Amino acid sequence: MNSENTSKEDISFYLGQAVIITNTKEQLEPDMILSEHIEGDYLGQVEHEGYNVYVLKKSKVEDLKTIEIRVSAPENSNFDKEGEDIVHTIEVNK
Predict the structure, then answer these.
(1) Backbone angles phi, psi at 61, to 5 degrees
(2) What phi and psi, each to the nearest 5 degrees, are found at residue 70?
(3) What confidence score (pLDDT) does residue 94 get?
(4) CA distance 82 to 94
(5) 3-state secondary structure of 67
(6) Which of 87, 13, 73 is closest to 47 using CA atoms?
(7) Per-residue pLDDT reduced to its tens digit, 10-52
(8) Element (H, E) at 43
(9) Are 17 and 30 in contact (CB under 8 A)?
(10) How does 37-53 read in b/e, with b if 16+ C-beta sit within 10 Å?
């Protein structure tokens, strides 16, 4: 995953805390030990990238049809939302 602050303002955006929801009815947070840390504070016009690893607890990869990723909207220094929450669905195992 990668993201960029195109604003001159400092923002907080926690891509590294994105939650996924699977068609197999699992809601998962990233495994912080296996994932690569993605910074949450964007001090000026900067980019951050890394990856999140999610460990299925009740299903197998071959059972997946969709994975929905949810990320809370970025916030400014006053904790006001800057934009919208992100919800993106990925189809897998077609």
Answers:
(1) -55, -40
(2) -125, 130
(3) 81
(4) 35
(5) strand
(6) 13
(7) 999 999 999 999 999 999 999 999 999 999 999 999 999 999 9
(8) none
(9) yes
(10) ebbeebeeeeebeeebe
Three-state SS for 62?
Answer: helix
pTM for the complete prediction? 0.88
Token pair recorded at residue 7: 């604003």
Total count of residues recorded for the chain: 94
With vertex at residue 81, the alpha carbon angle to CA 48 and CA 18, rounded to the nearest 5 degrees, is: 45
Give 43's contacts (C-beta < 8 A, 6+ positions apart). 10
Tokens coding 87: 């919800």
Q: For residue 67, how many C-alpha atoms fall within 13 Å in the half-sphere facing its CB? A: 20
Of the pLDDT bands very low, low, confident and very high (cuts 50, 70, 90), residue 55 is: very high
Is residue 46 within 8 Å of residue 31, measured between CB atoms?
no
Place of tokens 């912080």: 32
Whether the Cβ atoms of residue 60 and residue 92 lie closer than 8 Å to each other: no
